[in-house]
Design a protein that fits this description.
With about 350 residues, the chain is of the alpha/beta class. It folds into two domains: about 180 residues, Rossmann fold (3-Layer(aba) Sandwich); about 160 residues, Rossmann fold (3-Layer(aba) Sandwich), CATH 3.40.50.2000. It has 13 helices and 13 strands. The strands form two sheets. The protein has a seven-stranded parallel sheet with strand order 3-2-1-4-5-6-7, with helices on both faces. It has a six-stranded parallel sheet with strand order 10-9-8-11-12-13, sandwiched between helices. Strand 12, helix 10 and strand 13 form a beta-alpha-beta unit. Helix 2 packs across helix 13, helix 6 crosses helix 11 and helix 9 packs across helix 12. It is elongated, with a radius of gyration of 21 Å. It starts with a strand and ends with a helix.
Length: about 350
């Protein structure tokens, strides 16, 4: 069986959730026995932090010069025998021998973006989905959204394969590993990821004010003037936040010693930080909707409306009680144990084998 991976995501992103998913699949595929692999790449892919971790032999890859328009055009592949073609970002192969597989991560653009970028993105995504033999969705909620937006797609083509979670996240017991100045263990709230409008970052800020604990922000771009202004209040002389870019091991420490993770996002295709936090023993506060509700498990800290005072009361009622907090942490660790990149890869390779046998 021959598998051709389109590594174009490494040229589009320097980091990001899709890069994480593709890296976890790619590093395992490189170790897979009994398959022939080939990778399509572009000259700028080395700037991606996850691509730097992979050792792909030059004999197994086809590298082309990069320009920004390449992402919108399907690659030309000369191959006479049947092969699996899986793109990291919404491209297909028109080769008659290709078995096209597309992974759909979410429908953020379709639901929350406007203008030309949305049109171009959706055109490419829908074209790939409609011309794929098999479609992978990272959650049941993403599958539901797909069928709502593209009712012409046969449900039988869609396979739900959940994302995994890195083994770099796990509980710690030694407080000496926490060495951040001006931040005290269990006395800060954590916000991880981008701060797009649908992520409802302002809710996290307001909860920080209500509970009177600083907010540690990890990832995303620098805070805007408006975001900084929201942290200021009459009784605070300094903005009440810390903005950090961290490695996995550093983030694991912050998860471990956080009061909780705040995840008020209105929409997620999956929500990897939820599972990372749970795996590290960090309580998760999240909006009860879609994929977030689906992956977070039996979590009493899910809220259904953006009433900051009610959310803050719920948090303090549960997390200031040592017995309740311990149970929430234990249940979160149990829930996170269901997810692993090994499971994700195993189900993906099983789909390849099944698809190849039915060509």
């Amino acid at each position: 069986m021959k598998i051709i991976y389109d590594n174009i995501i490494y040229s589009i992103q320097k980091s990001g959730g899709i890069s994480v998913v593709w890296y976890e699949l790619t590093k395992r595929l490189l170790e897979e026995k009994g398959v022939t692999t080939e990778f399509i790449e572009y000259t700028n892919c080395s700037s991606n932090i996850f691509r730097k971790k992979l050792d792909i032999a030059s004999a197994n890859k086809k590298t082309e010069n990069w320009n920004k328009l390449k992402r919108y055009f399907n690659p030309k592949i000369k191959e006479q025998n049947n092969f699996i073609f899986h793109s990291s970002y919404y491209r297909i192969s028109k080769n008659k021998s290709a078995i096209n597989i597309t992974t759909v991560h979410d429908f953020t653009y379709e639901l929350y973006r406007k203008g030309l970028k949305k049109y171009i993105h959706s055109f490419q995504k829908f074209r790939a989905i409609r011309n794929s033999d098999y479609i992978i969705c990272v959650s049941e909620n993403t599958k539901k959204d797909l069928l709502k937006l593209l009712p012409d797609i046969y449900p039988e083509k869609i396979h739900v394969i959940y994302n995994g979670v890195s083994d770099n996240y796990f509980p710690l017991t030694d407080k000496s590993e926490f060495n951040y100045q001006n931040i005290n263990p269990y006395e800060y709230l954590l916000f991880v990821g981008s701060r797009d409008e649908y992520k409802r970052f302002e809710i996290a800020i307001n909860i920080s004010h209500e509970i009177n604990k600083p907010l540690v922000i990890v990832g995303g771009g620098p805070l805007s003037k408006n975001e900084i202004q929201q942290f200021k209040s009459e009784n605070r002389n300094q903005p009440y936040y810390h903005f950090l870019h961290l490695s996995d091991s550093e983030l694991n420490i912050l998860y471990n010693f956080a009061y909780c993770l705040l995840y008020p996002s209105e929409y997620e295709g999956f929500g990897i930080p939820i599972i990372e936090a749970q795996k590290a023993g960090c309580p998760v506060i999240a909006y009860k909707s879609g994929a977030t509700k689906e992956v977070a498990g039996n979590n009493p800290l899910m809220f259904e409306s953006f009433n900051v005072q009610k959310i803050a009361n719920m948090i303090e009622l549960n997390l200031n009680d040592a017995t309740k907090r311990k149970q929430i942490v234990s249940d979160g660790i149990d829930n996170a144990s269901q997810y692993s990149w090994e499971k994700t890869y195993k189900k993906t390779i099983e789909l390849y084998v099944d698809a190849f046998s039915h060509k």
